[in-house]
Structure formats: C-alpha cells, structure tokens
Description:
- With 267 residues, the protein is of the alpha/beta class.
- It is 48% helix and 13% strand.
- It has a seven-stranded parallel β-sheet, with helices on both faces.
- The N and C termini lie far apart (43 Å).
Amino acid sequence: MAKFSNTVAFITGASSGIGAALALELARQDGDVVLVARRQERLQELAHEIELMGRRSLALPCDVSNDDDLRRAVEKTKGEFGRIDYVVANAGFGVAGRFEKLTVEDFRRQFETNVFGVLNTIYATRECLIASRGCLGIIGSINGYIATPRLSAYSMSKFAVHGLAESLWHEFRPHGVGVVLIAPGYVHTEIRQVDKWGVHHPEMRDRVPAWLQISCEDAARQIAQALYKRQRIKVISGHGRCFVFLQRHCPGLMSAIVSRLSAKGII
C-alpha cells in the first residue's frame, strides 16, 4: 500500500513551487489533495493533473491572511472528503531589501502571510487534525536559523514560525498530532522572483546560483518522507544541513561565509 493511501492533505501555497510539487508527490503516493492558494487558474490546472493520476483533488482559491477564507476552505474540504489527515502550511513569500530601504509596513506585510497566515491555517484545521490524529507540516527555512543580509523581514518571519513549530510539537503531542518543521535551503522556485508586494516578476534574475539550488521535485520527495515519518525537524538539501550545522557549532565561521557570499552578490 502506498504511504499516503486513503489520506487527505490540505496544502496552502499550492499553486506553484514546493506546494505544487508536494501536491503531485502525495498524489503519486495515492493521497487525495486539497489545493489552497490565491491563483485559481493555476490551482485548476494542477487539480486536473492530479485527477489524471487517478486521485481526487479540490482547488480552493484562498488568501491565508484572511481567516474567513480559510474557514470556508476547511468547511468545503470536510464536505467533500469528510476529513483532513495532513496540513502543510506552505504559503509564503520573501520581502527582500536593505533595512534602510524597508518600512514597518513591509515587515507587517511579511508577517501577515508568513506568520499570521500560518497561524490562521493551523487554527482553521486544528480540530480536523485532532479528529484524524493527523500531522501538521510547517514550512520554515534555513533563514529561520541563519539571518542573512537583505532578508531581515523574511528571516524574522521564519524564526517566528520555527518557534511556533517547537511549541506546538509539545502541545499537539498529547492529541496524537504530529508536528514537522520543514526547513528548506535554496530550492528552485519563484520566491526570489516575487517582489515585496507579493507580485511575481518572471524576468527577475535569481541571485542564487544554480549549483546551490535543488529542484522542487527533490524537495517534495524529502518533505513527503518527513511527513510520513513525522520527523520533528527536516532540513532540506545538503547545503542547508551544512549551514545549520555550522551555525550551531561554528557560528563565527558561518558569519564569515555569509559575509563572503554577500560580498559576491550570491545572497
């Protein structure tokens, strides 16, 4: 039997990148998938692809910063599938720029999606997860361990959800609900082509070299495995694991590496 057979996964930020790749991966492993994001056309295309694989899917346009949107999405999911076994709070984007170029409103907008959007997702799905003794996946980042230049707002948001995941692991455990913190390194997605307003610019150059990135499909396979095993923390990519290790055990060396990469315009 496939790992996700007879399960329903509710994935936010599912229209592209890691969210879309994870939806396809879970469907390949016989799971049914609820796709939640703002871009309806892309959700419908992905839902059709999943249905061609012989799995059920539901495309639900939703803004995670709107708790009413999420409550409606969960009600529709319960009406269609009757349960939710996996929730992946993946929706997010990155506000980038030197601190002096950002405003308090930029930081607030970053937190609305990356922090409060995660909270809204968890509050909306908590009872379903308790009922199914399911598993919650929270998408963090290696920037939740290592703050880098130009990403003060993004790093703050990821440090926040890392703390949330740690706390919820203890709180949800008595209910039989797993909590998995996923911390991707550099993954080949649209995130570095999205401006601080959340608008995608496909012509924007990706500062991160290809050799430092892994594919969304590779990341999705690792995330699916972590969810199935209910790993407490999963750092995605070899370089990500290396950076986190150095930050914990050799912070001075890690700071020197960050400074060097920043001077070269890589980060």
